[in-house]
Each structure stands twice: as C-alpha cells, then as structure tokens.
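A favour, since you know our structure tokens better than I do. Could you add the entry underneath, on a fresh line?
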Amino acid sequence: MNAGEKKNTVLVAAEGISLESGIAKRLGHSAHFLKVDVDTLSIEPYEERPGEDHHAIIRRAASEGISTVVTANIGPKSFDLLLALNMNVALAPEIDVRTAVTLLAQGKLRVLETPTLKHNVEDRDRVLQARTGSLGKEGHKKTKVPKIRAPKVHTYTLRQLGGRGH
C-alpha cells in the first residue's frame, strides 16, 4: 500500500475475534474490537492496552483514520464521542461480523443519527446502587427511592345459584 493510499477499514465491536463472531450487543460491553478491511475482509484484533476502556480504543481508531464503527447498540456518551471524532456508527444487530461488513460495503446498514439506548451503563449502575443503598466511598448522598407497589388485584368469587351449573 502506498503512503497516500487510504485503506477502507472499519472498527467492529464483536463478541469474538473471527468473521463468524457475533456483533456485540452494546458497544460499551464489547468483548473485542476488530479492525476489518471492507474490501478483503481481512481482520486484525484491536489490542487493548492496559487501563484502556472502549472510549480510548475509539479515540485510537479515529487517530488511525478509521471513520466507521459497527455495533448493535450504543449509548449516548459513546455516540457523542463518535460524533465529536467525526465517526459514523453503523447498526448491525443479531448478525455476524462477515455479514455486517458485507452489508456495510453494499450500503445496506443503517448509519445512526441518534444513539439506540437512552442511558449509559454508568447511569444504570448509579440507579441500581441508589436502590440498594450501596454507593460506597464516592461520597454521594443516598437518595430515597420510592417503593414500587404491586397493582391492586380484585378477586371475585363465583357462587352457584341453585340448580345445576347456574
């Protein structure tokens, strides 16, 4: 490859490290990130560096010229990061890496304009911690979470009114 030639590569959030691996159900929960050449379908596992989270991996991919990330779902923080890095997010739920990249090359994957999830993982964790009262050493105030009450259930009794089966 010449110095001026740009490789058509995407970053795929995957459950494994092969083309037959499924697409990760959520970008932030991805077990692996793969650099996949769209033209040749050659893959290269994107090695995590010590202490690196998925946002750092995305920043590194952007600095290497990768402009598209393929995943099944994405939260608002990751989506905002990708927008800030001028990267696209292609939605590929419930398929494998090979199929996703092939569909992307054919222009058949939906490029997202908004995140698919309303909340980030961290937000969900804070709500769960508040409910269980286990906020730890962060020093946040415990918030009182209202109890969820079961709906009233009306029970009716059937009485037999004289005669047979009435």
User: Anything to note?
Assistant: The chain has a mean pLDDT of 80. The CA atoms of residues 54 and 62 lie 12 Å apart. The domain at 9-111 is CATH 3.30.420.130 (Nucleotidyltransferase; domain 5).
